[in-house]
Amino acid sequence: MLKQRVITAAIGLPLLVGGLLLGPASAVYAFLLVCSSLAVYEIAQLIFPPCFKLIESQDSVQAAPPFTQLTLFCVIMAALVFLSATLGLGQAKVGGITAVLSLMMLMATFSGSSIPRSVIQVSGSVLSICYGCLPWLCIWDLYLLGAHSRYLLLLLVVVMMGDSGAYFAGLKFGRYKLAPRYSPKKTWEGLLGGLLSSVGGCLLLNLIYGGELGPWWLLCSIALLAGIAGSLGDLVESAFKRFAQVKDSGAIFPGHGGFLDRVDALLFAAPVVWLLVYSYHKVASL
């Protein structure tokens, strides 16, 4: 397993970083749109089957729920949300997202064959969009904010260094369980190791950029707060997988599982990095 993880990371990481640094903005935009679609697809696949299974005994309609159609519906709606938020101007972004979400809820409500199924379709669709799509809007904003993708790279450093530090610290020193109900392998020692790795990675990246990312206290705050958010995001996805009774969200990456298994921390860390970076720039511009 470790060998597969190392091989996958050794191939994928240089391609990812190289694409962000050297690729045109249009390619990065398309890449993030695809990422959003993949995340929504996998979370919808985790949510809908077990939810419908819970109401099978109460539902008078015996036909199997159309999981494929529901998942496709969520992916299409997520793409519309992403496009509305990134191509709109000013308040048009908020209006576009609201309009798409309202349309999605209407369609999900009135296409259900029973009230319980309608409620599940609405709840699952909204959750899929909020979880799988909205964080990528923060990631796109981070890409646009700094030259040479510096703040997007900062986010990746926080998550990747935190993930690696937590893995090896937990493997070496792990003793006290962090949240055994959701993930029995995660430990407090691993969390601490991940946070320290994130802090070190952020400060090193700032040195590479000649201190242009911000003061040291901002970098440490980003590393710690986003690192904690990422760790909690990992536990959230673990809860979804336990609910669905699956080991991985998919099998797209050898040794790593599904797409969500690789970006679960990123989805929760991104809004934190976005908030701290934008707040700092807003205050600094006053």
Characterization of this structure:
- This protein has 286 residues and is mainly alpha-helical.
- It has one domain (2-284).
- 78% of the residues lie in helices and 3% in strands.
- The chain is built from ten helices and two strands, in the order H-H-H-H-H-H-H-E-E-H-H-H.
- Strands 1-2 form a two-stranded antiparallel sheet.
- A hairpin with a 3-residue loop joins strand 1 (177-179) and strand 2.
- Helix 2 (25-54) runs antiparallel to helix 6 (134-145), helix 7 crosses helix 9 and helix 8 (188-208) packs across helix 9 (216-244).
- It is globular and about 60 Å long.
- Residues 60-64 have low confidence and may be disordered.
Which blocks of ≥5 consecutive residues have pLDDT under 50? Answer: 60-64
Q: What is the CA-atom radius of gyration, in angstroms? A: 20 Å
Strand content: under 5%
Could you spell the SSE succession in H and E letters? HHHHHHHEEHHH
Could you tell me how far the N terminus lies from the C terminus, measured between alpha carbons in angstroms? Answer: 51 Å
- Main sheet: strands, sense, barrel: 2 strands, antiparallel
Mean pLDDT: 87
Shape: globular
State the gist of this model.
With 286 residues, this protein is mostly helical. Helix 7 packs across helix 10 (259-284). It contains ten helices and two strands, in the order H-H-H-H-H-H-H-E-E-H-H-H.
